[in-house]
Design brief:
Helix content is about 35%, strand content about 20%. It has two domains: about 100 residues, 2-Layer Sandwich (Phosphorylase Kinase, domain 1); about 170 residues, Transferase(Phosphotransferase), domain 1. A seven-stranded mixed beta sheet has the order 1-2-6-7-5-4-3, covered by helices on one side. It has a three-stranded antiparallel beta sheet with strand order 8-10-11. The protein is an alpha+beta fold. α3 packs antiparallel against α5 and α5 runs antiparallel to α8. It is globular.
């Protein structure tokens, strides 16, 4: 399928409006036309948008094109584009190529690097269990360096979960900055963002001035899931989810057959339990 465009190419100013909002200097984000790409297949779809695999006509390179569902808010597209651009060049964050126009909807789309592989969610589902500890260590190091890059750029992802982590061989990349925010923005912040099972307690409690630690919490949940193959806080209801959080690490870490996994679970448990304690203390103090 060939994309075409109704309007000529334009350009967009990709700099942040507030000091410290992004770590890069002012530069241009090229806005191309979807006529330059041939769609090959759909990679995935979610609540807010869809991603397709496409090939650049000029270079033959594969890309991933993300479009938002109707009607797409151009400000939201450009906001995500700026976050991706700010993190550009990091080996464990999906690469950003620019913004393009969809010929059917005449709306903006994001053009990103195509990652040959699958999501961490699909990988764990296909395995039916956890990953080897060495693999988990490798993946976690990569994810933590990606988080460090985001946070240095004053960006909080807010939706880190296995579905938003792409696995290509021995390399993982964080993707989908659709609900990310800049730490230069003043609170109150939205708490109803991201997947519930990976959301930090402060977000679940409706705390409106949380920070980058919400990503740390999500990464801890992802690490536990990579080790066990199961969501550590799976629950259908809000109250049940909180009960699971305050019982963190038990009995899963005690029943794990591999001593090294029990040890790793213990580390995750301590990290998450400390964060729960600090949040609960802060909530009680502010009450």
């Amino acid at each position: 399928m060939a994309f075409t465009c109704k309007r000529p190419a334009a350009s967009l100013d990709g700099h942040a409006s507030q000091p410290g909002a992004m770590c890069r200097k002012r530069r241009r984000v090229v806005v191309g036309t979807t006529y330059d790409y041939d769609q090959e297949s759909r990679l995935g779809a979610g609540k807010f948008g869809a991603v397709v695999k496409a090939r650049c006509r000029a270079t033959g390179q594969l890309v991933a094109i993300k479009s938002l569902h109707d009607p797409a808010d151009p400000h939201e597209v450009l906001r995500e584009a700026r976050f991706l651009e700010a993190c550009g060049g990091h080996p464990h964050i999906v690469g950003f190529r620019g913004v393009t126009l969809d010929y059917v909807t005449d709306e903006l789309c994001l053009v990103m690097d195509y990652v040959e592989g699958k999501s961490l969610k699909l990988l764990l589902s296909e395995r039916g269990g956890g990953l080897p500890e060495a693999t988990v260590c490798t993946f976690m190091w990569q994810l933590l360096t990606a988080a460090k890059k985001m946070h240095r750029c004053h960006i909080v992802h807010r939706d880190i979960n296995p579905a938003n982590i792409l696995v290509g061989g021995e390399v993982v990349k964080i993707c989908d900055f659709g609900v990310a925010m800049s730490m230069s923005e003043a609170p109150p912040y939205e708490e109803e963002v991201g997947m519930g099972e990976y959301r930090a307690p402060e977000m679940l409690l409706g705390k409106e001035d949380y920070d980058a630690l919400v990503d740390t919490w999500s990464l801890g949940c992802v690490m536990a899931e990579m080790l066990s193959g199961k969501r550590i806080f799976r629950a259908d209801e809000f109250i049940s989810l909180f009960q699971r959080i305050f019982q963190v690490g038990y009995p899963a870490c005690l029943n794990a057959p591999d001593p090294s996994i029990r040890s790793a679970f213990g580390t995750v448990s301590c990290m998450l339990t400390l964060q729960v304690y600090l949040i609960s203390e802060q909530v009680q103090t502010n009450a």
